[in-house]
UniProtKB/TrEMBL annotation:
InterPro entries: DNase_II. One of its GO terms (molecular function) is deoxyribonuclease II activity. This is deoxyribonuclease II. It comes from Microcaecilia unicolor. The keyword Signal applies. The keyword NAD does not apply. It holds the Pfam family DNase_II.
Length: 358
């Protein structure tokens, strides 16, 4: 055997462990299981006009590589869905008992548990290692299941529309995300922040352990940058900020009129508001790309877009335009990505201004 052949065999044997030890980086994932910088899911309600009763599990999908909504061929309760592919990273790691990752699940309505009004009206999942991870913000009560139960979707989440946004971040962004979560005061129902993360993510560990938290002010605005260099603004309000986040803060800070979509309960809905320089109008009806529509009363999602096309703001988050939610903590992540704006703006069928319906 030649010296070159011996070297090749040795090199191959040395490289084999690296091949088997390497795992893909933690990130948001599309339906093919491939990493994406961000994605947005709009789970459609069970009842839509011009259609027979649906499954309540169909969803539209948009990510950093697409330009408009696509109807998924999967259902949201399937592990092959974008949400399932993304969260399976956490579930698999949990089963392997690895200590090199951190995660947090929070929801004001926990799986198989009570509804909390004492903490933030917030729902989300963090999963990361010391390289990168994702922050998944959603509007689905009782979701996702505890890690030991594996991926699933609650039957209670079928009736109404729901939204979710997943963004992949490098590790250095999670200390700022932890600060935002201090303002949220989230109802954490499962988490693990190992001590190896405590120096950089001490606030996240305190939230996880339920220990004493540092004093916060009424609200906090921060800039976040995704792993793919996409810019986001994140608004986080505490329960000390007793006002409608849409009108009193977001519209005025973004300097744009907003069209707002949130669950509109007849007893608690806030009317469209023109009291400040930048107004907020309630969306009343959502149109879909395939010639059907639904009303806001059947939509549990929370999002808003700029009324003016040139401003191109889109925000997705936690809070409804409702009287009780003025006292609740929560927030929104906002983008000026033109594809995100175009996708959401196209859904507005009509809205209620302060004087008339459009």
């Amino acid at each position: 055997m030649t010296a070159g052949a011996v070297w090749f065999r040795l090199s191959f044997l040395i490289l084999i462990p690296d091949v088997f030890l390497w795992t893909p980086p933690i990130s948001c994932r599309n339906e093919a299981g491939e990493p994406v910088d961000w994605f947005i899911v709009y789970k459609l309600p069970k009842y839509k006009m011009n259609e027979s009763v649906g499954s309540g599990l169909d969803y539209m999908y948009l990510d950093s590589s697409s330009k408009n909504w696509e109807m998924s061929r999967h259902l949201i309760n399937m592990s092959q869905s974008a949400v399932g592919q993304t969260l399976e990273q956490l579930y698999k790691t949990y089963k392997s008992q690895e200590n090199s990752t951190a995660y947090m699940m929070y929801n004001d309505a926990i799986p198989s548990g009570n509804y909390s009004t004492r903490q933030g009206h917030t729902k989300g999942i963090l999963f990361l290692d010391k390289s990168q991870g994702f922050w998944f913000i959603h509007s689905i009560p009782r979701f996702p299941p505890f890690p030991e139960h594996g991926y699933g979707y609650p039957s209670t989440g079928r009736r109404n529309g729901q939204t979710a946004i997943c963004v992949t971040y490098m590790y250095d962004q999670f200390s700022e995300i932890a600060t935002q979560l201090l303002y949220y005061n989230p109802n954490v129902y499962n988490c693990s922040i190992p001590d190896t993360f405590s120096q950089a993510l001490s606030n996240l560990q305190k939230i996880c352990l339920g220990s004493s938290l540092p004093w916060i002010l009424v609200k906090h605005l921060t800039k976040l940058k995704s792993a793919g260099e996409e810019n986001f603004l994140h608004f986080a309000k505490s329960h000390f900020f007793i006002d409608d986040i849409y009108v009193a803060w977001m519209a005025q800070n973004l300097e744009t009129h907003l069209l707002a979509e949130s669950w509109q309960s007849a007893d608690h809905e806030l009317p469209s508001n023109c009291s400040l320089p930048h107004h907020v109008f309630n969306i009343k009806k959502i149109k879909l790309p395939f010639h059907s529509f639904f009303y806001s009363i059947n939509d549990h999602s929370k999002w808003c877009v700029s009324w003016k096309y040139e401003d191109q703001w889109t925000c997705i988050g936690d809070l409804n335009r409702a009287k009780q939610q003025a006292w609740r903590s929560g927030g929104f992540i906002c983008s000026q990505n033109p594809n995100i704006y175009k996708a959401f703006r196209s859904l507005v069928y009509y809205y209620k201004s302060c004087n008339s319906t459009h």
